[in-house]
Every structure is written in structure tokens, then in C-alpha cells.
């Protein structure tokens, strides 16, 4: 599926493009965090639009918000979620297999710009989705999910994106791990051969956007969690590409 037939050429353009892309995406991530932090009403407006309020069953719950996110238990959406969750694992295995195949076929000359993109993709999956999102932010951000906050039938206080003052103790809302996986899938479009980019790239883009959307409409995450989680993978992927390009050119200059 992936193309690893392109040989190395000594060019500096890819470095400048990848570094500029990283700076642009990195800046955009922080700008969006600033907006969501200072305007938490955005998150609340979107969450309320998919929340269905209902009368509380007991009079002892007077003053409490009762209701549910109606799409949270939708069978079709649960199937779609299960399928999309498997795709990053399938893609990662495919990338590893492609790298092994390239090494066995070309030996010491297995490195090409395309295989470097494979490596960048695997690095971004490990560092972005794995370490930064799921290990650090989701474990220590403290932000409760919408369905866990008292504004939407839960018991914990709402906190805005970027605040670590929440009472969530683990697997928290900031940021969305599945959205970050969706963002990572979008990066794979750059790895596809040109003749497959329209045929496979469009479905990948749709799935990439669908994954964070599902988390928002089911009350699992706020809009900010989904957007920033999705964008995080693009930031880390661009950073990995920039570093690999710099190392490649430094190695070429020494040879």
C-alpha cells in the first residue's frame, strides 16, 4: 500500500517545509488552547447542543442536572467507533512491515525519503498519541469529561481546557486520545503513493475527522479536547519529519 521506491536526493526544501509546517501547527495549537481556555463557553455550547436534559427521578436531586448524551449508546456509532479504533493499529503494523521489507530488500541502503516518513509516522504515534496524550495529559490533566461534570449529569466541577485544577483522577478528558489517533491517520496520506492519494486519502480524511466528532457528540470529550488532541498528532508528526530531515542532511553533508 505504501510507496518506498523513491531514492534519496540531496535537497534542502523538505527540511524547510517540514520545519515551517511544524512551527505553523505548533503555533496554531497554542493559539487554539488560548482561545478555548479564555472562552470556555465554546465547549459548553457544543456540549449542551448534544445533551438531552430530563427531569430527575428523585426529589432529593433537586438542583442537580439530569439527562444524558443521547448518542452515547447508539449501536451504530459504537460499531463505527470500534472499527476506527482498530485502524491505527493496522496502519502501524503495515508501516513496520514495510520498513522490515525495505531493510531486507535494500540492506544498508534501505533509508529513503519515504521510509523516513514511515519512521516519522511511527515516532509521532509513539510520542504523540502514546506518551504525550495518553500517558501524560490524560493521566494528569484532571479535566473531567462532559458526562462526568455536574453540568451534564455528573458530579465533578467543570474546568476549561488547559486547566489542571479538575478532580478527574485518571483517563481524563484533556485531550482526546481517539482524536489524536484520528489526526495521526490523516498524516498517513503523505505516505501514500500519488496514484492512491485520492482513492485512499479521501476515506482516511473522512475517518480522521469522524473520530474526534464521535467523541464530542457522545459526551466523551469537549470540543477543545477533540480539536487539540487531533491537532497534536499533526504537530508531532511535523516535528519528527523536521528532525529526521535535519539529521539526514547533516549526514549527507559529512559524506
Automatic annotation (TrEMBL):
The chain crosses the membrane at residues 20-39, 51-72, 79-103, 118-137, 200-222, 228-250. This is Phosphatase. It comes from the Bacteria. It comes from Rhizobium tropici. The lineage of its organism: Bacteria, Pseudomonadati, Pseudomonadota, Alphaproteobacteria, Hyphomicrobiales. It holds the Pfam family PAP2. Residues 123-243 form the Phosphatidic acid phosphatase type 2/haloperoxidase domain. Keywords: Membrane, Transmembrane, Transmembrane helix.
